[in-house]
Amino acid sequence: MSNTITATNYNFPGQKTVYKGKVREVYTLDNDLLVMIATDRLSAFDVVMPRGIPYKGQILNQIATKMMKATEDIVPNWLIATPDPNVAVGHRCTPFKVEMVIRGYLSGHAAREYHAGKRLLCGVPMPEGMKENDRFPEPVITPSTKADNGEHDEDISREDILKKGIVSEEDYTQLEAYTRALFQRGTEIAARQGLILVDTKYEFGKTADGKIVLIDEIHTPDSSRYFYASGYQERQDKGKKQKQLSKEFVRQWLIENGFQGKEGQQIPEMTDAYIHSVSERYIELYEQITGETFQRANISNIETRIEKNVLDYLNTAG
Questions:
Q1: For residues 26 and 78, is the Cβ–Cβ distance under 8 A?
Q2: 154, 216, 263, 313: least CB-packed within 10 angstroms?
Q3: pLDDT in tens, 38-49
Q4: Which of 146-155, 222-231, 241-250, 299-308 has the lowest mean pLDDT?
């Protein structure tokens, strides 16, 4: 099986702290610098799967950094450089404790809630008479609280965010404006690739000087759902499933094999053949979303490659 990176244990010059998220590992250095490493870990239902997916970290990092560059004229972001295919370096920020989820269509979690009879999601009304994957009249923002590792993210309304003082009203109004602007731009970028950006989530932070910036990932298959635009309406009219570009295919496979992240459930075995198929799907996602051919990085010794590239960057940047 191809080499993957599922954990890191670096000691960079000036290193202060290390935070290990579900997929990314974040090293804080002196001078308010962050080194974010996208591992090949695969997370679904807020659970990290036991095996990594070859090239997944590279794919997520490269889509996210391309999308940040394609949106930096409308929303400032944390990114400074990408010294390695799996690495982004940027400004240290204090993250807001909410994820800004925005939905253009009734899909995924929203569709499941709707199907269960709910017509209010995060305090936002959903119109009657919709069916799964229909377009909302206007995109809706349905925030969630940012959970610690192993915990599930929870839906939360704008009112509760403000009432609980999680984010100030002034900052939250800015987050909403940035979220809508990014989703509009993301929709335009997707349309050029024959895709529909269905829903996505953004995370924001504040820099040391108090500026709100976009952090983490943007418009990746892990944080977003895409449909193929061609045939979308026909499939809706006939009540057929939409052709998706997201990691929903992993979630569906897990559900079919009796796993939804609930207590007492066992993660099904992921064979070499299945891992390879997931890797190929991620490469397809990359090429469809960016319109570019994926260039496989050398993964014969991925840990050493990353370390060398980061150290070379820090030496020249410092």
A1: no
A2: 263
A3: 999 998 888 889
A4: 146-155
How many Å apart are CA 51 and CA 40, to the nearest integer? 8
d(CA 29, CA 36): 11
How far apart, in whole angstroms, are the C-alpha atoms of residue 153 and residue 180? 21
Q: Is the pLDDT of residue 283 over 90?
A: yes
> Structure pTM?
0.90
Tokens of 159: 């009112």
Type of residue at 294: F
